[in-house]
Specification:
The structure is a homodimer. The first copy, chain A, has about 350 residues and is of the alpha/beta class. Chain A has three domains: about 10-50, 434 Repressor (Amino-terminal Domain) (Orthogonal Bundle), CATH 1.10.260.40; about 60-165 and about 300-330, Response regulator (Rossmann fold, 3-Layer(aba) Sandwich), CATH 3.40.50.2300; about 165-300 and about 330-345, Rossmann fold, CATH 3.40.50. Helix content of chain A is about 45%, strand content about 15%. The first copy, chain A, has a six-stranded parallel sheet, with helices on both faces. Chain A has a six-stranded mixed sheet with strand order 7-6-8-9-10-12, with helices on both faces. In chain A, helix 5 (about 75-90) packs across helix 13. Chain A starts with 8 loop residues before the first helix and ends in a 12-residue tail after the last strand. The model of chain A has no long low-confidence stretch (mean pLDDT about 95). Chains A and B meet through helix 4, helix 5, strand 2, helix 6 and helix 11 of A and helix 4, helix 5, strand 2, helix 6 and helix 11 of B. The structure holds a DNA duplex (16 and 16 nucleotides). Chains A, B: Keywords: DNA-binding, Transcription, Transcription regulation. Chains A, B: This is LacI family transcriptional regulator. Chains A, B: It comes from Actinoplanes nipponensis. Chains A, B: GO terms for molecular function: DNA-binding transcription factor activity; transcription cis-regulatory region binding.
DNA sequence: TTGTAAGCGTTATCAC
DNA sequence: GTGATAACGCTTACAA
């Protein structure tokens, strides 16, 4: 603290009896300054409590040290796990991570993106409300690397990291069919969400391939991917006459599945004996449910980590030209909500 | 885009045929520039795709437009709800929010705080690993407002926003006593976490006041506040001989309670008939459990919002001198995990 | 109402 | 190995 002001390189230089450039060298290329002066400078820094001003650094250097992730739904732990993976990768690259949450609203998303551009972040990771929204392309055109997370960018306009959602829907329903179910509900919505669309599509595909009658795959649409909507779907399910009622349900995500599970058990039905349930994402709370939930596992942290690596490559590697769109393979984790005897978590 | 470079105020000025200062005025004090020039400038900005450089702004203006929150545990939804409350308040003040996660590790916390100081954030909200750590006081001394969230700052050194944890422990155990329980387990740890210490202390206080024998309040320590530790506590509980076994448990947070609930139901016991369970925090997943969980509710978003207001007050109000430490009153939300008939969510 | 110019704290390019 | 010095893009007096 120098005279009420927070100390600058200039103050450090004066206090250490060296020039301003030397102080900068100590911070940015320590190998170029002699050990003795370096030590003197470092002591001065410590004494004055010098903290480098990142704005000035960034302005001069023209390069920021932060990445950003714009989440789609902050109340879904899935996205926090993704964020955690990004954070790990960012940490390794010695970068800070800005986490924002659009809460599924396009206008909030735009506000956040706007701010991030002003901050000149080094790259933006985003699970977008709509991957085709023009502002995303616009940002990319400005030279800020954009990577779509948990969704495939359209037309190869961006790098993206995602899981094969269609395949995910297939293995979920295939698993139910293997358990002998011949009337299955698919629960999810709104279909404006791409992930939902594809998971449901996968379910329908495999159902047809298995030669099962289309009418026995019953679609229960929901207004959102939330626990509450899962409960409401459960009530609708209960309203179906017993001989037409599905014996199993595939939910487009774990939040829905948890809600459905709660409603079902609360109504006195046994899971999986009277209703088997499969979720999607495999968040931690899926395994922690009273009846541990079978779920289609996404490699949550890995998704984030891979996305961060892609964005860094695009930011720093001059011959990053063709956008990459790796698709991870989802994996079914069978637990007690579909398998009668197993108590495995 | 000018010449491959991202356009600056200078470019806008030239393109609009005005001076650089006028462009700045359009952004910062539009009322001072005539409508016609303003419109001309705005058109030029749009045409060039001008985006203000926040680093430069911050460097010159000496004031940053971001707040930061350092969470204690990113895998606990409670903290995300707090963060959401902060974000709402930040949004209203037109500020960005940096979210970091120390994951309970002091070293990660320091790294984050260091970065935040370099960014010259306007204020730091933190649920610290240890509120007495010297680096917190150090930051505060430098003039960056620090507000402790979900914990009371020691010795009035900081503003803080928290819930009365002792009271929370009291109402939880009082509720169990009212339901007729006379042997109760308290589950939680490590005691190095202040919140845990106080919640357990409240439980012991009321137990003594009710005149119940100390030996009938059985402490089951845990190594962390996680679902897995809750399960493990459940196993230990099951190992207690039936006539000594508690008929109810108070868990220091909902994650533990959820784990305990799962283990208990998985072992074939009925909740609440054979074991009643109370959690703490009232995260969304508490209400969503198969047997909806009774919990001590913290006003999660409100906590964040209040903390943000405090930090802003400290940052902008010159006569913010005495640190405020509002204590919110926790509230018991009774659900099916303790109350036999109720199916209320 | 508009224009001019002096920095903000840092980095990087040169001479020394 | 070290020390001046010119930017970086913006805000804000102050002058016109």
């Amino acid at each position: 603290m120098v005279n009420g002001r927070t100390p600058s390189v200039k103050d450090v230089a004066r206090s250490a009896g060296v020039s301003l450039g030397t102080v900068s060298n100590v911070m940015n290329r320590p190998e170029v300054v002699s050990p003795s002066t370096r030590e003197r400078v470092e002591r001065a820094m410590a004494e004055l409590g010098f903290v480098r001003n990142e704005s000035a650094r960034q302005l001069r250097a023209g390069t920021s040290r932060t990445l950003a992730y714009v989440m789609l739904d902050g109340s879904n732990p899935f996205f926090h796990d993704v964020a955690q993976g990004i954070e790990l990768a960012a940490e390794e690259a010695d970068l800070s991570l800005f986490i924002c949450n659009s809460n599924g609203r396009a206008d909030r998303e735009e506000v956040h993106l706007d701010r991030l551009m002003q901050q000149r972040v080094q790259g933006i990771l985003i699970t977008p409300v709509n991957p085709e929204a023009p502002h995303l392309a616009e940002i990319s055109r400005r030279g800020i690397p954009v990577v779509i997370v948990d969704r495939v960018g359209v037309g190869g306009a961006f790098c993206s990291v995602a899981v094969d959602d269609v395949l995910g829907g297939r293995i979920a329903v295939e698993h139910l069919a293997e358990q002998g179910h011949t009337r299955v509900a698919v629960v999810g919505g709104p279909e404006s969400i791409g992930q939902v669309r594809e998971r449901l599509e996968g379910a329908r595909q495999i159902w047809a391939e298995l030669g099962l009658p289309p009418d026995d795959l019953i679609y229960l649409p929901t207004a959102a991917l939330t626990v509450a909507e899962g409960r409401s779907a459960g009530e609708r399910l209960a309203g179906i006459p017993a001989r037409r009622r599905p014996t199993a349900a595939f939910c487009a995500n774990d939040l829905l599945a948890l809600g459905l599970l709660q409603q079902t058990i609360g109504a006195g039905l046994r899971v999986p004996e009277e209703l088997a349930i499969v979720g999607f994402d495999d968040i931690e709370f899926a395994a922690a449910a009273a009846v541990p939930l079978t779920s289609v596992r996404q490699p949550r942290q890995e998704l984030g980590r891979a996305a961060a690596q892609l964005v860094l490559d695009e930011a720093t590697n001059p011959d990053h030209h063709h956008h990459q769109q790796p698709l991870f393979v989802p994996e079914l984790v069978a637990r007690a909500s579909t398998v009668v005897r197993s108590r495995a978590y």
